[in-house]
Write a structure and sequence with these properties.
Length: about 600
């Protein structure tokens, strides 16, 4: 695949010219689903872009967006690039001091926000942000002299274009594919976040590569809820522009299923946690069924467990329970789950973190296609993905067309291709550590099979090395345990220790239902109850039976509450922050190793 010559704005505007009055996006407003055509979206992008230029924005300026995923986010993003500037997305969940760090590090001049609490973050840090000239609010009235409404900027753009009718086209044409389009800041779990510089060419390559393997079609409705500061969401944006599909924006993470039932999407990109929650919800409802119905459900799911374990080993294991499930349970589950997601879902795509093969086999058994992919911010996200009709569960698929991969001597995955970042912004030493002769060192450990499919075994930096010198991949153990219906989250620990231990959180709804069946009182604290610990021990023992002795979990504790993003335990893409959780529970972890 040859390198692209178009910039991302041209990809978008090509679609505006081709699709015209066809729907580009839909979102819920005032209780009703509204639609915006490609033509209307293109007009608003031009208005905002010209409005930015009228405010003095120059090519190469950095402009930030701190907002939930919404239609206005996309319009602002394309408008920034159409002004010749560079988008610096910031997670809407970042506290004020983290927002300030990124704005200062990137030298941001203007900031788009949605809600008042995001504008308040900028006002709070204004004294430490001398380069920020102003804030543009998607919604609400200005609360300070340097704040503007998005509508006011659009009106400025209309007036500017009347006086400068050819300037927009000239600016867009001047943006080269090698120019910077985005600075995406890494999560910074091991230090200050770094700005990953991604070019227009990286994003347009992703759009063209995805088109080649026909993941998304023009007639698709793509459900969007991932945070747009994450590279997975950004690559979906590029693919959407390239294909001319419809993007449907959910009201909130909590409303994913409700909104899907209303808008009937056909494609849903997601992080694994959403699929895990869907699986947990199915189990909770099935386990709560009374009498024979609940007994049959339990029998069928035991059969599913054996079937999924067999599939992982290349075997077809169909117990009596599984065969009963095929006739009486699984078809009903398939119909119910299909309805939950709107009845038209043809494709799920999972990325951002490892997906448990058991969860994937569950969706597959019920007739869904769930393709796991892999990439990093530094590789513009879309690097490997399974294919429709060629899905190898347990792998992250084949390289995107035009991307090369190889495995280093120590097992690290190396990547080369048009989607690679140019650099870490103003960090030449950090750039040199990961980029060598065009190859990017991912920090992930994996293996390529005979067909070229990649299997990730773990993060290189997350590998546990016991005091006995044995290496253990914690994510494998964690994913295995998370397949149990009573378990929500797991963090395995044991680096430089004598053995491996785990912190476990409960899936509250499922655990409460199980406790009720066991005769436990509703107000009993489950995390310390001996029956609950014995039940979780069964899951740990089952997982341990498949492991070498040195990688078995010797001890565990059940935490009182689940890991949450609000509590600082999870990243915006719902991955466990190992360092944070380890420090938070340091005394408990240390106690496991006291003789």
């Amino acid at each position: 695949m040859t390198a692209t010559t178009r910039n991302l704005v041209q990809v978008f505007e090509d679609q505006v010219g081709r699709r015209g009055d066809a729907t580009a996006m839909t979102f819920k407003q005032g209780g009703t689903w509204k639609t915006v055509s490609w033509k209307e979206m293109g007009r608003r992008v031009r208005d905002v872009a010209d409005g930015l230029v009228s405010l003095g924005v120059q090519p190469g300026d950095r402009i930030s967006i701190v907002a939930d995923t919404c239609a206005e986010w996309i319009i602002a993003d394309v408008a920034i690039m159409a002004a010749g500037a560079i988008t610096v997305p910031i997670y809407q969940s970042n506290p004020a001091h983290e927002v300030q760090y990124i704005l200062q590090d990137a030298g941001v001049s203007w900031v788009f926000v949605d809600q008042e609490h995001q504008a308040a973050k900028i006002r709070e840090e204004a004294a430490r942000l001398p380069d920020v000239k102003g804030v543009i609010r998607f919604f609400g009235d200005p609360q300070a002299s340097f704040e503007h409404t998005l509508a006011a900027v659009e009106n400025r753009g209309v007036a500017f274009r009347e006086q400068n009718p050819g300037s927009h086209a000239a600016r867009v044409a001047a943006v080269k594919s090698s120019d910077s389009a985005s600075y995406l800041y890494t999560s910074g779990t091991t230090g200050n976040p770094k700005g990953v510089v991604l070019t227009h060419g990286a994003w347009t390559y992703e759009a063209e590569a995805a088109a080649e393997i026909k993941l998304v079609r023009e007639d698709d409705v793509v459900l969007l809820f991932l945070p747009m500061a994450h590279s997975f969401a950004k690559v979906i944006e590029a693919v959407w522009f390239g294909e001319g599909a419809v993007a449907a924006f959910v009201e909130s993470i909590e409303k994913i299923v409700d909104n899907a039932g209303e808008i009937h999407p056909t494609v849903m990109p997601s992080v694994p946690r959403i699929f895990e929650k869907a699986y947990d919800a199915v189990l909770a409802k099935g386990l709560a069924s009374p009498g024979v119905k609940g007994w049959l459900f339990g029998l069928a799911m035991n059969g599913f467990d054996a079937w999924a374990d067999g599939k992982a080993k290349g075997m077809e294991v169909k117990t009596l329970g599984f065969r009963i499930g095929e006739k009486l349970v699984f078809p009903k589950l398939a119909a119910a789950l299909a309805a939950r997601f709107g009845g038209r879902m043809r494709l799920f795509v999972s990325g951002g973190a490892p997906l448990s093969p058991k969860i994937n086999w569950f969706f597959t058994l019920l007739g869904f296609t769930l393709l796991e992919g892999y990439g990093l911010t530094e590789t513009a996200a879309g690097t490997f993905v399974n294919r429709i009709g060629g899905n190898k569960i347990g792998t992250v698929g084949l390289p995107m067309p035009g991307t090369e991969a190889r495995i280093a001597a120590d097992g690290e995955i190396l990547i080369k291709g048009p989607g690679l970042m140019r650099e870490y912004y103003r960090r030449p030493e950090a750039t040199a550590e990961v980029l060598n002769d065009g190859w990017f060192a991912t920090g992930d450990i994996g293996e390529l099979d005979a067909d070229g499919y990649l299997r990730i075994t773990d993060r290189k930096k997350d590998l546990i090395k016991t005091s006995g010198g044995k290496y253990i991949a914690p994510q494998n153990l964690e994913n295995e345990l998370k397949g149990d219906p009573l378990i929500s989250q797991v963090m395995v620990h044991g680096d430089q220790r004598k053995f491996v231990v785990a912190l476990i959180t409960l899936s509250v709804e499922n655990a409460r239902q199980w406790a009720k069946e066991q005769g436990l009182a509703e107000d009993e604290p489950l995390h310390v109850h001996p029956k609950v610990k014995a039940r979780i021990q069964v899951a740990v023992d089952a997982m341990n039976s498949k492991q070498a002795s040195y990688s078995t979990v010797k001890k565990f504790a059940i935490l009182e509450s689940d890991f949450t993003q609000e509590g600082g335990d999870l990243t915006p893409t719902l991955k466990v922050k190992r360092k944070v959780v380890t420090e938070r529970h340091r005394k408990l972890l240390d106690s496991f190793y006291v003789d």
